Amino acid sequence: xxxxxxxxxxxxxxxxxxxxxxxxxxxxxxxxxxxxxxxxxxxxxxxxxxxxxxxxxxxxxxxxxxxxxxxxxxxxxxxxxxxxxxxxxxxxxxxxxxxxxxxxxxxxxxxxxxxxxxxxxxxxxxxx
Amino acid sequence: xxxxxxxxxxxxxxxxxxxxxxxxxxxxxxxxxxxxxxxxxxxxxxxxxxxxxxxxxxxxxxxxxxxxxxxxxxxxxxxxxxxxxxxxxxxxxxxxxxxxxxxxxxxxxxxxxxxxxxxxxxxxxxxxxxxxxxxxxxxxxxxxxxxxxxxxxxxxxxxxxxxxxxxxxxxxxxxxxxxxxxxxxxxxxxxxxxxxxxxxxxxxxxxxxxxxxxxxxxxxxxxxxxxxxxxxxxxxxxxxxxxxx
Lengths: 128, 245
Hints:
The structure holds 2 protein chains of 2 kinds.
Chain A: H1 2-14, E1 20-22, E2 33-36, E3 41-43, E4 54-63, H2 68-80, H3 85-89, E5 99-112, E6 115-127
Parallel strand pairs in A: 1-2
Antiparallel strand pairs in A: 2-4, 3-4, 4-6, 5-6
Chain B: E1 9-12, E2 15-16, E3 21-34, E4 49-63, H1 66-74, E5 81-86, E6 96-110, E7 118-125, E8 130-141, E9 145-146, E10 150-151, E11 160-170, E12 175-183, E13 191-197, E14 205-210, E15 220-228, E16 234-243
Antiparallel strand pairs in B: 1-2, 1-5, 3-4, 4-7, 5-6, 6-7, 6-8, 8-16, 9-15, 10-15, 11-14, 11-16, 12-13, 12-15
């Protein structure tokens, strides 16, 4: 789990993203930020002999919401732009996992340390 | 006692393919010919049959991976493969093993857009299926080694078969030779089993040995792996054998 979570932020950093990276559920952040949550699903035994397990990780791209239009534009770019989260994460996280794919995204709001942020919540399916 | 399938093992030629598959099956079928006659002499009457030819099939399903893709594609029209299947895992000496000489008869890949790339394969058995046991789980040995004794409960005179899957060799040895020995007591009197020395190798290789019909195999069986030459030589292999029935 830790390797995959570290691999997620490492893959995004390799892609040239300048945001603060938190490969764990941080209690305080500096925006813009990428925050990797604990897996919402862990399924063991995708193959015999623990050859592969399957998990789904939430990955939040978080921006401030003081300027709503700037927040929207930032989320739009990270969802569908040239350096989108999906483009950067689909693959194998630099060998940290066997395979992974961003399967969905949900623009939303998130509270961290009592502060409300705009965010895009990505779901990353991972096969170890 | 029930067992989960998650621990199952599949050794296919030069690969421990277990970690790439999530479904494996062995099907044995025996033909029968009806021999019912008039006035069978019992009432109510029962149909009568004689046993005919037996056949086996193996099916595998799992995920695409460069390793299992190479192993499965290499099996196409290759003259036959050595396949060893452990329904509940080949992780300890004595674990149940199915030894099957196979021809790959079908292979399929599929790429669902929302899922992992899948691979399926089917194999036709080409000889008697060995219902036997693991003698060496896939693992590494670093020098000449004698394995532990496996007790089958009694000697047999029905012949035997054995599968060796050498998955990796390092240290540039001149050769590794693996052979079977048997004993009546398990503590002494060990002797080489006639015809049970696999060919010497210094590269990954899969071999299948079949004894002469009616060959004797004493109650206890073990292996000896002997290395010649090399620098810190190692061998990674799996080994299983079966007494014919």
